Amino acid sequence: MAVTVTVIGVDGKTLPPGGADTVNAADLVVGAQRHLADHAPDGVRTLDVDGVAAADLQAATRAVVLADGDPGFFGVVRTLREKGVRLTVLPAVSALQRLVAAIGRPSDDVTVVDGTDLKRALNVCRAQSAVAVLGVNPAELAVGLGGWRRSLVVLTDDGASTMDTVAAAGRKWPEPTLVLCLAEADVVPSSGWIAGARPLSGGWAFSEDDFSHRDGLVTTAEVRALALPRLAPGPGTLVWDVGAGSGAVAVECARLGSAVLAVERDPMQCLRIMANASQYNVDVRVVEAELLAAISTLPKPDAVFVGGGGEAVLRACVSVEASRIVVALPSIDRVAATRSALASAGYTVSGCQLSAARLAELPDGGTRLAAVDPVTVVWGER
User: Fold this and answer.
1) pLDDT above 80 (res 223)
2) β-bridge mates for residue 303, sequence order
3) Beta carbons within 8 Å of 95's beta carbon, 6+ residues apart
4) What is the DSSP letter of 41?
5) What is the span of the domain harbouring residue 24?
6) Would the pTM of this model clear 0.85, i.e. be above it?
7) Range 277-305 average pLDDT
8) With contact defined as beta carbons under 8 Å apart, do 270 and 214 qualify?
9) CATH number of the domain that 163 lies in?
10) Rounded Cα distance, 227 and 225, in Å
11) What is the pLDDT of the chain when averaged over all its residues?
12) Are the CB atoms for 10 and 67 separated by under 8 Å?
């Protein structure tokens, strides 16, 4: 007969209702040393949670596992279920519940990520307005958020502390903890219909008329429709839009969940990028500079879209070793050099020329085909 293990959440030094009786009746108690010291009865066999095996639990008659807060929320419940252990769970208040309660904030818009993979966690914090990161050093998170305007709320044994990233980066933290990263610390979000997510609405590859742009200097909808799946934007990734122009590609990637960094040297175009990002309620970090001057200070991307710049810019983009690079080329003269640069850096190179004709109305009410300037799109993956 399979043994059912009871997992009990611990809130500080408090057990949930029924927890004390369950622990006192156990013949094996598993947990962190602080939990064992507080709650394991004298004389009962104990094991540290980090070294426990499924066989240890299944060999006991009445095994109990002690864990912080709600053990089913990014906790030990998943680990034990993956080992085939049958469980009963008595949850306590989670660390996230305590943190948002301490600052009087709703939690239904908070995206929650595991801080074990710091790069992915950082990119979610760069993209979303409210992100809780579990088990992370606040100083490391703060350093990685340099260049993004964020506030951090850090949960410690003394309560919740709110600070900017500079202050958090300058402190020594005793151990990894829970950090809430906020774009605007004092803003209360409007009510949504789905917790912890921002559903995509309206599709993608919008018309050029849906973006503020100058003299047609905007990546066409057809090019964006092809480029987006090659860039593969999504939560946890960072995309560079180089020679961003109006920022149409940057905004579309941000809408799909990526952290996005737009590099553009023209100050008026930078203002347009900000306006377009604001229109679609996404966060795009704008770097007003030549890429070659700024590249050494920028976080490494997962994907790069090159919409402008010469061969030196392309070589610089190749040097950052992104997994995906997409280059839009109005001139066919640069196709061979682009393919060569990507292939020499170890990318598998593909490409195509986009020649589109759109339906347009004639003065008499008829319909004609209006040609769109052809663009060659070259991409590399590795």
Assistant:
1) yes
2) 239, 324
3) 68, 69, 134, 155, 178
4) P
5) 4-93
6) yes
7) 97
8) no
9) 3.30.950.10
10) 6
11) 93
12) yes
d(CA 58, CA 86): 9
Residues in CB range of 48: below 8 A, 6 or more apart: 30, 31, 32, 33, 36
CA distance 133 to 141: 9
Distance CA 272, CA 156 (A): 41
CA nearest neighbour of 354 among 259, 225, 253:
225
Q: Are residues 89 and 70 in the same domain?
A: yes
Answer for the pair 129, 182: CB distance below 8 angstroms, yes or no.
yes
Q: For residue range 87-101, list pLDDT tens digits in order.
A: 999 999 999 999 999
Could you tell me if 232 and 103 lie in one domain? no
Count of structural domains, the chain: 3
What is the C-alpha to C-alpha distance for residues 375 and 123, in angstroms, rounded to an integer?
Answer: 31
Three-state SS for 83?
coil
Question: Which tens digit of pLDDT belongs to each residue from 24-61?
Answer: 999 999 999 999 999 999 999 999 998 889 899 989 99
For residues 262-287, give the mean pLDDT: 96
Determine the 3-state secondary structure of 142 from DSSP: helix
User: For residues 258 and 239, what is the distance between their CA atoms, to the nearest angstrom?
Assistant: 7
**Does 74 lie in the same domain as 31?**
yes
Q: List residues bridging with 63 in a β-sheet.
A: 28
Kindly state whether residues 252 and 367 are assigned to the same domain: yes
192 belongs to a structural domain: no
Average pLDDT over residues 334-349: 96
β-sheet bridge partners, residue 136: 177
User: What does the DSSP assignment read for 186-239?
Assistant: TPPPPP-SSTT-----S-SS--GGGS--STT-S--HHHHHHHHHHH---TT-EE
Same domain, 141 and 229: no
Tokens 């990637």 belong to which residue?
253
Distance separating alpha carbons of residues 181 and 302, to the nearest angstrom: 22
Instruction: Report the SS3 class of residue 124.
Output: helix
- The Cα 348–Cα 325 span in angstroms is 10
3-state class (DSSP) for residue 375: strand
**Cβ atoms of 71 and 77 closer than 8 Å:** yes
CA distances from 126 to 25, 134, 146, 227, 304 (A): 48, 16, 10, 22, 16
Amino acid at 118: L
Gap between the Cα atoms of 88 and 77, Å rounded:
9
Rounded CA-CA distance 364/92 in Å is: 71
